[in-house]
Amino acid sequence: MFVLTGIALQALPGTDSGTLLTLFWIGFILITFFYQTRIQSYLALNDISRGLNRLKVMKDKARKEAIDYLVNVGKAPADPAQRVDQFLDYVTIMPVDIDPAGLVGKIDHIVTTNNDRVRAEVGALLGQSSPVTVSISENLLEVATSLNAIHKIVRHFYLLGKKTNSYFTLIQLQMLMPMIIQEADALLNAVDSFKVGQPVGDGIGPVVVSKYMLGKEKRVVAKDTVMAITEYKGRKLYVLKADGPMAYVGQPGVAMKKIIDEMGIKPSAIVMIDAALKLEGEKTGEIAEGVGAAIGGIGVEKFQIEEVATKAKVPLYAILVKQSILEAITVMRKEIAEAADKVVQVLNRVIEEKTKEGDEVVVAGIGNTLGVAQ
Amino acid sequence: MMSSVPGPDKKTKLLVYTIEECPACGQKTKRAFAVGDYVTKDGAQCTKCSSPTKVSLVYAESSKPSGQ
Ligand SMILES: [Zn+2]
């Protein structure tokens, strides 16, 4: 372009194209020197605004899908749109952390209150419905709420950056945008699996332990959590998972506390099977072994499990199946499903190696148990 | 400056299957997923030994034959 400008200038009679070109370059350099951040802010604003539009489309779609499910599958007697909109803006106020002693108990209390409230509200919205439908509705509303919150926060920083003309706010937001969009995309994709009740990648733990629970008597040991007693090579196994095929995650922490503290069982090991986020470059369905409480979430369950295990001095073993965030919340991929048999082998080996005949072992399949009964 | 916001995915279509396994002879049957299927649900009769089967897995595969 500059070459063309040069040629054009040369064509003009009576001008020294060399001087003009130099002036042009000096002007260009001065403009980029003084207005560089302005120009970049402008580009960032454009970029973010495009991303923001996509987020808006996504959150509207998630809201619509939730409403459609409530109406078509849940057979909600009245139009749920207004209630759903109230639901999306419902806030959970986390407890203060300036005096951290006993904080986990407080968080647990608030989270449990919220979960109970969600279920009660969905139940009221649907009249009577199967527990599977109610649990799926809960999950769909949760997805819609998350997308709504993501959109609101991104919009806040976009408008703030625009208003205050803050270069760094905008550039930071622009840099984060691809990751935010990716996560939002994963959430929206989860809707498709949830509404038809397909097991998700996170359900690999429940899939594995369901093989041990099949045909055994099940009893409820905590909210949405069931346990069966079985035997493997002379060891007595207490196998836990959330109550399927509902989209529940259960309360494995409370369940383990009950097994160890109340039922007086002295396990010589606790083995937890869960999905774990893979790093970029790692293969989906890869199995990793380790020690410690294999459980995600806000940290309440993890804390409870660590506490009960520490108090009773029970070693904690973990078997993890690697997957991406998208794979964890959308329909289970073949690579993950096919890891189930290998996990069973690893689990059997861990039990054989770490315990002896006559021992008691707690085995917990952690994760969302949608589409996985027992 | 390149745009940092990725465009909408050209989604690879996923096909979802249900695997029914015979506890007696171990034969596995693969069929398309139907709404209401879940792991451990009772399946059809085994074609080999006519024992009742159970759903052992539900998973998705990319429709491209090469996987990905
Ligand atoms: Zn058979």
Report on the structure:
The complex is a heterodimer of chains A (374) and B (68). By secondary structure, chain A is of the alpha/beta class. Chain A has helices at residues 2-11, 17-72, 81-88, 103-126, 131-163, 167-195, 204-213, 252-262, 300-311, 325-329, 334-337, 339-354; strands at 218-222, 225-232, 235-242, 269-277, 287-291, 316-323, 360-365. Chain A has 2 domains: 44-196, no CATH class; 201-365, Peptidyl-tRNA hydrolase (Rossmann fold). Helix content of chain A is 58%, strand content 13%. Chain B has one domain. Chain B has a 4-stranded antiparallel beta sheet, with no helix packed on it. Chain B is elongated and about 35 Å long. Helices cover 0% and strands 41% of the residues of chain B. Chain B has 68 residues and is mainly beta. At the A-B interface, helix 2, helix 6, helix 7 and helix 11 of A face strand 4 of B. The structure holds zinc ion. Zinc ion binds next to loops of chain B.
Topology order of chain A in helix (H) and strand (E) letters: HHHHHHHEEEHEEHEHHHE
Q: Could you list the spans of chain A in which at least 5 consecutive residues all have pLDDT below 50? A: none
Low-confidence stretches of chain B: none
Mean pLDDT of chain B: 82
Structural class of chain B: mainly beta
Tally the helices of chain A.
Answer: 12
Tell me the strand percentage band of chain A.
5-15%
Biggest chain-to-chain interface with counts = A-B, 37 and 23 residues
Distinct small-molecule ligands in the complex: zinc ion
Taking the alpha carbons of the first and last residues of chain B, their distance comes to: 31 Å
Give the number of domains of chain B. 1
| Residues in helices of chain A, as a percent range | 55-70%
| Tally of DSSP β-strands of chain B | 4
Structural class of chain A: alpha/beta
CATH superfamily of the largest domain in chain A: Peptidyl-tRNA hydrolase
SSE order and pairing:
The complex is a heterodimer of chains A (374) and B (68).
Chain A: H1 2-11, H2 17-72, H3 81-88, H4 103-126, H5 131-163, H6 167-195, H7 204-213, E1 218-222, E2 225-232, E3 235-242, H8 252-262, E4 269-277, E5 287-291, H9 300-311, E6 316-323, H10 325-329, H11 334-337, H12 339-354, E7 360-365
Parallel strand pairs in A: 3-7, 4-6, 4-7
Antiparallel strand pairs in A: 1-2, 2-3, 5-6
Chain B: E1 14-21, E2 28-32, E3 42-45, E4 52-62
Antiparallel strand pairs in B: 1-2, 1-4, 3-4
Residues 22, 24-25, 27, 46, 48-49, 51 of chain B line the site of zinc ion.
